[in-house]
Amino acid sequence: MLTPVGLRAYACLHAVRCGLSRFSPQPFRDRAKGWIVGGRVMAWLPNAGVQRLAALADAAIGQALEQARWTSSHRLALVLCSTEDDRPGPRLADNHDALQAALGADRLSLFSRTEILHDGAAGFALALDHAQRMLHAGEVEACIIGSADSQLDIRVTRWLEDAGRLKCRHANDGRIPSEAAAFVVVEHPERARLRRAPVLAVVGGFSMAWTVRSGGGQVLRATRACTEAVRATLAAAALTPAEVGMVWSDLNGESARGLEWGLASVRMGLACSESLFHPADCWGDLGAASGCALLGLGAMAQATGWAGGKPLLVTVGNEGPGRAGCVVLPPPRDAGLVQVSHRAPRIYRLDYRIGTTTEIPPAAAIDPLRGRFQEQMTAEIGDTLAGLHHQHAALLHAADSRWQDRARVEQRMLNHLDAVVAGGTQAMAHVADLCMSGDAGLVFAASLLIGSLPHPDNLRRLESALAASTDPAVLDGVKAGLAHAPRSAQLSDLLQRWTLDPQASVRMLALQLICLRCETQVAVPHAVLSDESPGVRAWGVELLGRRRKLNAETLRTLIGTQEGDLQRRALLALLRLDPAVAAHVARAQIEQAPDTGASLTMSLALAGQSGDGALLRDLAARHQSPDAILALGVYGEPAAVPTLMAFLEHDAPLAASAAHALRIVSGLRVDEDVRVERAVDLLGGETTTVIEAQHRPSQSRELWAAWWSEALPKVAQSRMRRMRQGRPFSLDTCLAEIEHPDSANVDRSRAALELDIHGAVAIPPDVEWFVARQALVLRKLRAQLQAEL
What is the pTM of this model? Predict the structure, then answer.
């Protein structure tokens, strides 16, 4: 397959998944003297005409035969889908002699039989029908079906423009002309198994229908044909509309086609709007090659596991009355094809070396235009990855960000990482070199790729980048990228070396990554506690505290002599080691310094020891700080609920903290949209006030009073000491708080810490982990807790 967004089917699939488009002005104009925009295959081919179509077809046929591991000793048929007779422009062939003249006698000698269909894009269903009949009759052992078409011709664009179907300067409703070649090999699965050839997918059913002039407008007639084609296709595959997981359609920007599909999908009950893909957004309208191109993409989606193992529906329409459909099913389990899941965290081959001179694809060396195309695509992917990283970082640091909000952004990141790998070693080398740049997003893209393919040569790029610069942007990008990379011995060895690096920033980065990745095999000596850098000492306490390698006396000394981040991490380590001792130390510190900081107050709440509720209420009343009020909610004493409701009448920070605390205690998620005023500093020292919309937990005292009046009898009857999510505090309530899709990042981290403190259940509390990875850990933990109960 060759399209404007890729020169192989695998690359095309990932380009479509990532939403990459390759459109450019073409060397001909519309009637308003505007340059027509189209999609051109970026390869060293003849400029136009039948020679260009022949070169496209020859390359695509060669790819299909190579993928199918086909040899010349087998009987093979060619079924070519050509354009309709009434469409102007270049056409590959009208008969066998013209086809031989275009492709050459050597290429055509591979086929024992050739057929040419003039039914446009929808003709791929007829081609499948012809192939099925020949295979069942035993006339051939396999068939290769496909098409090569180009609408980048002034005759075609004039024909489309006169019909009002071309997107141009004076019309937005219309298609973007493009070109492509797509061919697939079809044969019986048993035959492929005997040849030990990989099976990408199975065609479960296909059908074609034509409109009939029996009343109604053109759109309604086309809708009937589309509906009948889809209905017959699903019936042939013995499927119901509810069983369809994805729909790949040739919707091309023409409003009539969109209305047609909308009506047909409603009539059929196809409820898969989330999984409707129309690659014309990326590559334009491929003309007669649309059907086979979508069939090839559907097969590749099933082969890579991206379709999720569910049936995939392909729908195509030609220029005239024809509409066709096809169902693509996953390959058999014994098809000899390695299944790769693209919805799970990436696990690639760990011996893949990026960018060595011996692995340069020969096609790029002999085809300079193709090499330039690959460079542009890779640069576009790297830039998009950088932008996605900045979106992801904003979601991580937003106080009210839900953890499930990141899932879509993270999946797009993984899609683009797949696209880089699909682009080959040159594409990977280009992205890997971004680790030397100064932008955190570009460094993230490079480190995520290198961490997923951690060959020693690749990891040396990261070492060289950090040796050359310890700019915060570089450190942040490396940390964000390597935090999500799969586990490997090479990466663990790199982190071990970084713990001994002469630069303090690199040593701190290593300790942060060991914590984020939960690396238990990397040794961290106690000497880190005497490091000259306060940041290194703080993260050393954090890491050794998680591993419970520090004794209580050492931690008490650190708490009494240190301040700031180091004291906070020492408190957390002591909480993990012994909550009762941590509570005692916190009480002693509070008595010595009445104006204590937030970390001591929160530590007292996290320890959850009996009798501390009165002290926390006193601290909240005395200091009236948001941190002290939130600590009341974390402790969860029922007697503190009236105090929290009283704080709802105070100014904005205290009321917001009280509403947050009541949500923790009750589990009641009632939000409100309000407009708040905020002061903004201007240039020259001036300030102004702006009004912003804000989504926050409800601060209505009437609402919380109504909830408390209903909950109070249950609380009194159960005599619960601590309350969480409207129930007695337990490990289960902590886990439920983490699992809830609306939980803010700060709540999830705190609940994970409580699990570690009270149940020694060490789960990754780091909100920077990808959502898919967190969800996997949470499912295992839930099953473990249920088994223990």
Answer: 0.73
Q: How far is CA 258 from CA 215, 226, 288, 629, in A?
A: 21, 12, 19, 54
Residue 675 near residue 704 (C-beta atoms within 8 A): no
DSSP collapsed to 3 states, 656-707 = HHHHHHHHHHHCCCCEEEEEEEEEEECHHHCEEEEEEEEEEECCCHHHHHHH
How far is it, in rounded angstroms, from Cα 561 to Cα 551?
16
- Sequence-distant contacts of 295-298: CB under 8 A, at least 24 apart: 295/124, 295/182, 295/184, 295/203, 295/326, 295/328, 296/1, 296/9, 296/12, 296/182, 296/183, 296/184, 297/1, 297/9, 297/12, 297/13, 297/16, 297/248, 298/201, 298/246, 298/248, 298/326, 298/328
- The pLDDT tens digits of the residues spanning 288-319 come to 999 999 999 999 999 888 888 899 999 999 88
- The neighbouring-strand residues paired with 680 are 688
Q: Determine the Cα–Cα distance for residues 510 and 499; give it in Å rounded to an integer.
A: 6
CB atoms within 10 A of CB 275: 17
Pairing relation of β-strands 687-697 and 322-329? unpaired
Which amino acid type is present at position 84?
E
Please give the Cα distance from 507 to 642 (Å, whole number).
48
Integer angstrom CA distances of residue 634 from 346, 592, 766: 36, 24, 19
Rounded CA gap, 231 and 447, in Å?
Answer: 48
Nearest to 543 by CA among 758, 771, 766, 774: 766
pLDDT of residue 764 exceeding 80, the answer is no
DSSP state of 487: P
Query: Two tokens at 728?
Result: 């007695």
Tell me the mean pLDDT in the region 744-760: 86
CA distances from 306 to 4, 10, 421, 715 (A): 22, 12, 15, 49
Q: How far apart are CA 632 and CA 629, in angstroms?
A: 5
DSSP 486: P
Tens of pLDDT, residues 318-351: 888 789 999 999 988 755 443 333 333 333 333 4
The more confident residue out of 343 and 189 is 189
Name residue 318's amino acid.
Answer: N
Distance CA 177, CA 182 (A): 16
- Are the C-beta atoms of 434 and 381 separated by less than 8 Å? no
Name the DSSP class of 213.
-
For the purposes of burial, counting CB atoms within 10 Å of the CB of 131, is it exposed (0-12), middle (13-18) or buried (19 or more)? buried
Distance CA 286, CA 289 (A): 5
Contact 480, 517 (CB under 8 A): no
Q: Which of 434, 389, 439 is nearest to 412 (CA)?
A: 389
Average pLDDT over residues 429-457: 85
Instruction: Tell me how far apart the terminal alpha carbons of the chain are, to the nearest angstrom.
Output: 55
Q: What is the mean pLDDT of residues 754-770?
A: 76
8 Å CB contact between 261 and 219: no
Q: Which phi and psi (to 5°) does residue 183 adopt?
A: -140, 145
Spatial CB neighbours of 449, under 8 Å, sequence gap ≥ 6: 354, 417, 420, 421, 428, 431, 432, 481
Q: How do 246-249 and 312-317 pair as beta strands?
A: parallel
Say which residue the tokens 């926390």 belong to.
Answer: 616
Q: How far apart are CA 688 and CA 703, in angstroms?
A: 34
Kindly report, residue by residue over 34-77, the tens digit of the pLDDT. 889 999 988 766 777 888 898 899 889 988 988 888 876 668 99
Rama region for 238: left / alpha / beta (φ>0; ψ in -120 to 50; rest)? left
CA Rg value for the chain: 32
Residue with tokens 């000259």: 532
Report the C-alpha gap between 441 and 226 in whole angstroms. 44
Which of 485, 478, 397 lies closest to 439 in space, CA to CA? 478
